[in-house]
Amino acid sequence: MDFAVFVAVALCGLLLAFWLGSEPLRRAWRRHGIRRAPFPAAWRDILRRRVPYFQRLPADLQLQLKRHIQVFLAEKPIIGCDGLVVTEEMRVTIAAQACLLLLGRRSDYFPNLRQILVYPGAFVVRRHVTDDIGLQQDRREVLAGESWSQGQVILSWDDTLAGAADPADGRNVVIHEFAHQLDQEKGEATGAPLLPRRADYTRWARVMGTAFALLQAQAAVGAPSLLDHYGATNPAEFFAVASETFFERAPELAREQPELFDTLRQYYCVNPLSW
């Protein structure tokens, strides 16, 4: 091979390798540009009308949330289902609640998430389940939201609006499903999302396991509890329900279960008690 051709081929190979290997750098640069763009005035109006908790955030977190919203909406398609036409109001309302989980944390914006599907109201899914004696059944479930490890979040718009409207009722379908997305970054949801250090999992398992067992005991006898009894279904649902409670009923959670509150505070890197 001619030396000049060899050099040209080698150079092309190096450039290709650099281009492929620099994707994280190019993504970071692209996101930097998105965050620097002015936040649309119409989006600010939507936040004021549809997302009451936005006004409670400190100024630095408001700014951080707006920048996260810009990146989220630039990268995550939101698709209407069952005849629903997705509007800017829907997009911003969903993004604001999802990005609440990113405040204060180093995040890659739910890296496994490819799209958000939105139905007008509660939607029906059919599942094949096996009962206690091994028989398979086709079961219909009516849901307000669902998170799939394959890269989709499904939401009811009616429930999304209701969750945003009352930021202190402990029920927020967007927070719930996007907590599942955090849990699913490592694969199937287990109730233990990715933590900074291996040693953190020991405390996480102890604190979350104790609180989960308490909720299961309360649910078994129908006793009232701060956390929704749905969290007693399994550890993954417990983490999602606990996340809703952490963001929406922080004072009660800190008072009733301080160790659970502190564990979630360390994971989410924010303190809702200061809002």
From TrEMBL:
InterPro entries: MetalloPept_cat_dom_sf (IPR024079), MtfA_fam (IPR010384), MtfA_N (IPR042252)
Pfam families recorded: Peptidase_M90 (PF06167)
Entry-linked SUPFAM superfamilies: Metalloproteases ('zincins'), catalytic domain
Name recorded for this polypeptide: Zinc-dependent peptidase
Organism expressing this protein natively: Viridibacterium curvum
Organism placement in taxonomy: Bacteria, Pseudomonadati, Pseudomonadota, Betaproteobacteria, Rhodocyclales
